[in-house]
Amino acid sequence: MISKDKIDFLNSINSDYSRFILNVVKAFEKREDAIEKQIKDNIYNISTKKLNTKMINLDEIWADPYLYTVMRISLDRLIELLEKASIEEMKSDPNGFCKKIIYNNYKPISDFPDSMINIVDFIKDLDVNDNLYFYAKEINEESIFKADQITKALILKTISSKEKRYSKLYDYVYDYLKQDFIGNNYCDFIDDKCIAQRHIRMYPWHLKNGCCYREFSKCKHFNKEFCAANCMACRLFSCPYLSKMNVTYYGREFLLFEVFLNKYQIKHMVYDFYKTKNEVIKAILKEEK
Ligand code: SF4
Ligand code: SF4
Question: Is 117 inside any structural domain?
Answer without folding.
Answer: no
